[in-house]
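Annotated sample (chain length 311).
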Amino acid sequence: MRGTVSSVPAILAMAALAAAALVAASCGDEFKPGTAPPGSSVGGAGAAGSSSGGDGGAGAGGSGGAAPCGGDCAGATPYCDETKMECVACLDHPQCSDAAAAKCDDGSCVACDDSAQCAGITDASICELGACVECTADDDSACGGSETCDLLASECVDVAAGSVENCEACSNDAQCESGHRCVAMDFEGSAHGHYCLELPAPTCDRPFLVGINKPSLNGEAATDYCGIEEDLATCEAVLALVGGWFCTGTEGMCSALDGGTEIAVPGAICEPVGLGGDSCTYACAQANQCLAGSPGNTCGDDGTPPMWCGG
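Output written by the structure step:
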């Protein structure tokens, strides 16, 4: 029996080792702090959270559609129309500085249709035919002292009323001496400015015996004026002969002084007048188109056209 008893401790020892092995195997699946248990979805939730951050990035991109007046308005459209939130050229008439576009219309500067719209234009307070001007035939109140209104430029000029004589250039009836008006003239079929011409009283005197029937610059109805033959001569050339101007042979060039500097005189020709030397004169068709007194009272030539006064 001694042999049987001695084997019991060995059997118990083997049982203890088997139990320890089982415990160790079960501990391999044990949850450890700081780690996800087997089958847990916590880590996946973390990934989903990062995708919601991406949505935030998409919202920030929407700030690119800012309104035009959110920045500074400049250049041709320096003002902000806060109703439309648009940059415009103007908000009111005084902000339009071009005389030809003085009216503010829906943010744009356009032609005026009322003098009140000319507030932003210096020295041009009258609206005339879509533009702001200084004076007109009906309103020359801006012109003071010895000034009159130049109706061709619609501005005041230093030309006194009644100071412009017969056949001299003008830009307003009021500038002409008594009994004269400012009338458009031609030369050789083309427009050649405006000149003070005499109304017949009751007839005309040489060399102004050719009737010119036209309205005046200020709008007086067309009537007869004492004029010259516009196909042959100009007022400048007639006055050069009246004044005894000199020339040295170049057509259209004359000087008030013998040997003086010559200037251009439209329509003038350089020919001997009477028994004198070359002088500035003008072409004629008959003697009554020439001066009343000698030596410029004849109309002739040297055998080669044209004929001229004094020839």
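Annotation: The chain is about 15% helix and 20% strand.
Annotation: The longest strand covers residues 190-198.
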